[in-house]
Amino acid sequence: MEFDDAIVRRYACRKYDARQVAQSDLDAILEAGRLAPTSTDQQEQHVYVIRSADGLAKVDELSECRYGAPTVLMVTYDTTDVYEYPGGRYDSGVEDASIATTQMMLAATNRGVGSCWVNVFDPDKVKTAFGLEDKERVVAMLDLGYPAADAGPSAKHSRRKPVDELVTYL
């Protein structure tokens, strides 16, 4: 698939068939996240692959948005290993984990795997449920699976503002 096609075809998949994501597809998706650019190449993101029945049951308790996906990637970052912006008020953790998550979504689309970025959860409850270290911050859960035959984008997906409302040249 051409890169532009992956950008156009990607949508938030909310219905999956029963097949588990093939390991070769998952490996390619995770590699895309590994290769994502990060501030000063800190690479502070960490991805937890959740496939077990127990792990998926925990996800279901923590969020209503798994939509039957057979795999969920929990994307976190290490709060002690981030680039701190001048002024000391902000760091790169959320954006770097978000870049990795975005690249994994596009890689999934490229491989015919549906995805849905989930942020409907309490990060502290997720951290506790999965026994994560205090220094980790949960940014996203990324549902992954092969789209069901009748899956498709929501009605809102095609409603995009014109570029002149989103871009200002200075």
Globular, elongated, flat, extended or rod-shaped: what is the shape?
Answer: globular
Cα Rg? 17 Å
Oligomer: single chain
Order of helices and strands: HHEHEHEHEH
Separate helix tally? 6
Strand order of the main beta sheet, please?
A: 1-2-4-3
**Unreliable sequence segments:** none
Tell me the major beta sheet: 4 strands, antiparallel
Structural class: alpha+beta
How would you sum up this structure in a few lines?
This protein has helices at 3-9, 23-34, 53-62, 93-110, 123-129, 163-166, and strands spanning 45-50, 71-78, 114-118, 136-145. It is α+β, with helices and mostly antiparallel strands and 170 residues long.
Descriptive account of the structure:
With 170 residues, the protein is of the alpha+beta class. The protein is 34% helix and 17% strand. The chain is built from six helices and four strands. It has helices at residues 3-9, 23-34, 53-62, 93-110, 123-129, 163-166, and strands at residues 45-50, 71-78, 114-118, 136-145. It has a four-stranded antiparallel sheet with strand order 1-2-4-3, with helices on both faces. The longest helix has 18 residues, at 93-110. It is globular. The termini are far apart. The model has no long low-confidence stretch (mean pLDDT 96).
